Each structure stands twice: as structure tokens, then as C-alpha cells.
Amino acid sequence: MALKNLQLFHPGKSKMVYQQRNATPMRAPPTAMSRSMSKSAETLAGSTKYKEPVTRKARSTDQPGGGMAKGSSVLGLPNLTKGWGRDDDSIRSRSRNGSGSSRTGSLDRISTRGSSTTLNADEDNINVVVRVRPISEKERSHGERLLLEFPGKGQVICHNTTPSQKAKVFSYNVVFEPEATQEDVLEYSGVKRLLEMAVEGFSCTAFCYGQTGSGKTHTLTGPPGLVETGASPFHPEHGLMVRSFIYLFRLISERPESHFILKASFLEIYNEKVIDLLNPGSARKPLQVRWSKESRSFYVENQFTVDCETLDDLFAVLEEGMRNRAVGAHSMNSHSSRSHTLLCVRVRRDLREDAGVVCSTHGKINFVDLAGSEMTKRTHSTGKTLEEANNINRSLMVLGYCIAQLSDGKKRGHIPYRDSKLTKLLADSLAGNGVTLMIACIAPTRSNLSETINTLRYAARAKKIKTKPIVKMDARDALILSLKREVAALQAENQHLRTALHVQTDYNLDTYSQGGHRRTPTQIEPNKLYQLPQSELVELVQLHMEENSALRTENSELFGVRDTLLRDQEMLSRENERLLKKLEDVNSVCVRSPIIPARPTYSGANTMDANIWTNPISSAASITSAGSSS
Ligand SMILES: Nc1ncnc2c1ncn2[C@@H]1O[C@H](COP(=O)(O)OP(=O)(O)OP(=O)(O)O)[C@@H](O)[C@H]1O
């Protein structure tokens, strides 16, 4: 029986129902979280042909926000299904399998900021994982040994050099032990979740932090020279970036209902200058970092962006940038990055909705390889390398200061983003509307202990920082989506109305009250009540109470039906009145119309009446009646 649905139309409740519908957050369909990377690689290996390095297709003056229209809106979309790798765990090798942990948040607040509408997600902590590199050949030859312990549960224990000092314990979301593979990092670091969110329209960042020679570049791009020499994208040594590109294209191929446009850019910050790695020019002219009032974030002016239609296009961008970035040698790393690099893949998704409406979201994923902090005494840097080291250390100090301020929830004051180019460009990832993953890279040996502890402290602070992820959409699209929600709500209402009218014809009070599975108490004469045992009396009372409550429900439903029917009746009688009036108007216009005579429906003998139109039905009737009366 459809009566249950009619409760929604109880006069007292209709308003509330509408408000609830308005507040219902839009949720994107959940995305699969743990898929096998090797499978995706196989699939793509079959479908992707290798191409020559990409030709640059566009110079962009894009502002941050992925080409958003003026007055564009930011609108939170999906249910944040958080899959930050294995929660609180330590990963030794690939064979130690496990699925990503999942924390869920919901999008539940609508707020307005200037002209734009924001539907916020829950706050999201920066996710921090630690990767420990293996002991190098050089360290081994110096008799160095492992000074770290991994008890599991995401913990790292740093044993001190002297037995009198206490060991220090740190805990993170995931710890990758020296034996962990590149594939493990993709699977369990949470980067897959970042890519899924970028596809849904969020701004995401994965950055590697750590001292020089701790394995940041190895984690992101593999061993030195691998990308630059043009190895196949499916080479087993590739780092997180290439693996992420493959996963990104897999995600896209799994969403045939959407049209995607990928654009990539690649820059480095070298000695506090921003250099475009896709178009450095012979003079390596620096680009300007500017503030956008519209999106309220910093952006790089005149940066090259490249349309990437295939995996090879994206790989070629990486290859080109890796060739152009600044690399140097010092005593701790023969392939040391002398700059911070930032590769950004913007993901525009056009989703064709019903009735041909297209909604666009603008997500992005940044991969940031920070230059390593250096103790210049240990690296023996001089001249140019020393200047580079000083700049690297200065910008990392500003980053550290920003992280310290942001992580101190209570006395959070001014955050000095403007003090370095690096912090300007990472501002949104650190405290804005993005989703961020920090990979803290450490070396496991005694000689690196103090820097390892510094990195671990840095990472522990970063873990406390919260961001508020939101989906960026064009204002027009946001409006369309909200209208679509309203239409859906109205359609539901309409459906209920139809049900109500159906009930009007089928409704039968007797059938309803006698039918169903309701237990009805048997009628007992009052004088026999005293003879009933206590247990039966209790049951009888219960039955009567049940009966009463069921009758109350029925009554309120019947009132609902009655109100609906009265409303319908009123609407129908108004509609009838309107139609009758319209008919009268039409008749009166037609009777007087001078045009009608061109096609008269009867030819009267009386020429005087030639201009008068007569309704054929009524005239026939009048003729008949005239005939019959004669
Ligand atoms: N997990 C690992 N497995 C094998 N080798 C590694 C690993 N991590 C780092 N290495 C090796 O250690 C060396 C230094 O690593 P890498 O250049 O990535 O350090 P970095 O932190 O980027 O240093 P810098 O800050 O100076 O650029 C490289 O030869 C790299 O291949």
C-alpha cells in the first residue's frame, strides 16, 4: 500500500522534507580504492604505443584554479573515502600485503565566500609516511650499520649513539622499511587516493622531504638517469610519478561517461628563481610568482602547460623536465638535486549529465621533489654549490617555520608564506583546500642520525596540519548541479502526488484496516477480565497499546490522504474554471472575427448573416431541434 509514502505530504512535514533535501550533499560515486598496479600496467602496455617526446602545445597564462571562469565557484563533491595506505603500519616488502585503511568524512556544510559557493568537506590531516632508504655501498664500506628499528604500527625507533641516551620513538601513518619496493610506495602511501581525488576535482599534492641523499628523487622518479634516458614507462625501477601517471590513465579509462583534459607543467625553484623546465630558454629567464585575488592563491605567470592526451605525453613532460633541472655533485650525493621541482598535472573532467548538460570539475595533482637539507660541512660545498645549499636551506627553513605555525592549532598566527617562493607555491597544499601527502625520506645510518631525527620531527609536526579539501567547479556548473538537485526533488514530490491520486481510486478503508499483519486483541467480556491469569492480562494490554498506536498512525495517514485529495480537488476545480473562461473567450472572439467569413461553415441564404460564424455543432443541434419541433 502506498499510504506510507504519503506521510511525506503531511502538511506539517512538507517544509522540513524540502529543507533536508536542500542540505543533502552531492556525492560522487565511490571509487575503487585498491587495485593492482601491475594489472593496470599490463592493460596500458597493450593499449599505449610509444611516441616521440611531446611537442609543446600551449603556453598558458592560467591562473591557479585550472582556468576557472570569473566568479567561479568551488563546490565540494564526493564522499571522502580516505585510503591512506595501511594505517599505522610498517612495510618491509611487497609480499606483506594489506589493504588501504579507510576513514570516512562527509561533505556537510554550505557556506558562501564572496561570489562563490563552497560546499566543504571535513577537515583532512596532512598524511605523512616515512621511507627509509637502504644502506649505501659507501656507507657499508665505512662500517655503518642500521640504527633504526621498525616495531610495526607505523613506528620508527631511533637508537642513540650512546647507550646512556634514550631511544626516540616516532609514529606515522605508514613506514616503508629499506626493503620496500617502488610498487609498495604506490600501493600503500595513499597516493592512489590522491589521484582518485584529483580526478574528482580536488587539488592534491605529494611531496618528498628529507636531507640530501635520503632518497627523495629515487622515491619520485627512480634511480638517477632512469627517466632522462627514456626507459619504458613500465620499467620496474620507476618511481611514484610514472606509476601514478599509469594509474591516472587507468582511472580515466574507467570513466567513459566523462571527457578528460590533462595538462601538465613542470618548474623548478633554483636559487629562489622559478624556472620553467619545459621551456627554460638559453638564459633560463625566471618566471614571476603572483597573487591571484580571484582564487586567493599564488600562481606562476606565463608557465608552459602541455596538453597530455596519452601516457607518453605525460611521460615526455617528465623526461623533458628531468633533463633540464639543476643537478650537481657533492660528497654525499653524486646526483644531488640543486633545486625544488614541482610537476603539476591538471585534470579537467567534463561530465555529460542528463539533458546534455555538461558539468566540469578542475582537479590537479602536484608532485614536489624538495631539494635536500644540507650540512655544508658534511657535503663540503663551495662556490656555486655552497650558494645553492644556502638557498635550499633557507627556503626549507621557511617551510619548516610555516609547518610549525600551521601545526600549532592554538597559537596559530601569521604564516610567512611570502618569505620564499617554495612556501608561496605550497601554501594551498599546506593549509588551503587541497589534500596533501608528505613522504619523509630518511637514511638509516649513524652518521645521518641528527638529520634523520630532524626530518622525523618535521614530519611529526606536519601530521598535525589540517586542510579543507573542496572541489573546484565553474560557477555555471555549480548552479546547474544545484538546479538539477532541485529538479530531482521536485520529481520525487511529483511521484508522491501521483501515488496520492492513485490511492484516491484504489483506496478502501475496510481493506486497509482489516488487512496487513497487525495483531488485533480478541474481545473479552469485562467481567471475565478478572478471571484471566496475569500473563494473559499483560499480553492483552500490550495488544491494545499496539492497536492504539497503529490506529493513530492510520489516522494521521488518512488525514494526509484527505488533505491531498482536497488540494487536488481544489486544483482541478480551478483548472476547470480557467478552461471554461478560456472557452468563453475563444467563442466570443470567433463570433466577432472579420476573418472567419473567408471560410464559413455554412452558407446561409440570408446575405445579411454572411459575416456571422456559427458553431457547426450548436447550429446542427438547433437545426435538428427546429426540425423535430416542426
Ligand atoms: N629506496 C632506495 N633503494 C635503492 N636506492 C636508493 C633508495 N633511495 C635512494 N637510493 C639511492 O641513493 C642515492 C641518493 O638518492 P636520491 O638522489 O634520491 O636522494 P635525494 O634525497 O633526492 O638527494 P638530494 O636532496 O641531494 O637530491 C641514489 O643513488 C639513489 O638511487
Characterize this entry briefly.
The chain has 17 helices and 26 strands.
Molecular structure report:
The protein has 17 helices and 26 strands. It has 630 residues and is an alpha+beta fold. It folds into 3 domains: 86-92 and 125-472, Kinesin (3-Layer(aba) Sandwich), CATH 3.40.850.10; 488-590, no CATH class; 598-629, no CATH class. β22 and β23 (358-369) form a beta hairpin. The longest helix has 59 residues, at 534-592. The chain is extended. The model is unreliable at 1-88, 93-121, 503-516 and 594-630 (pLDDT under 50). Residues 133-134, 136, 210, 212-218, 223-224, 333, 335-337, 371-372, 441 line the site of adenosine-5'-triphosphate.
Q: What name goes with the CATH superfamily of the largest domain?
A: Kinesin motor domain
What ligand species are in this complex? adenosine-5'-triphosphate
Question: How many beta-strand elements?
Answer: 26
In CATH terms, what is the fold-level topology of the largest domain? Answer: Kinesin
First-last Cα distance: 60 Å
Report the uncertain regions: 1-88, 93-121, 503-516, 594-630
What coarse outline follows from CA principal-axis ratios? extended
CATH class of the largest domain: Alpha Beta
Count of discrete domains: 3
Give a quick account of the main beta sheet: strands, pairing sense, barrel closure.
11 strands, mixed
* Average pLDDT level: 70
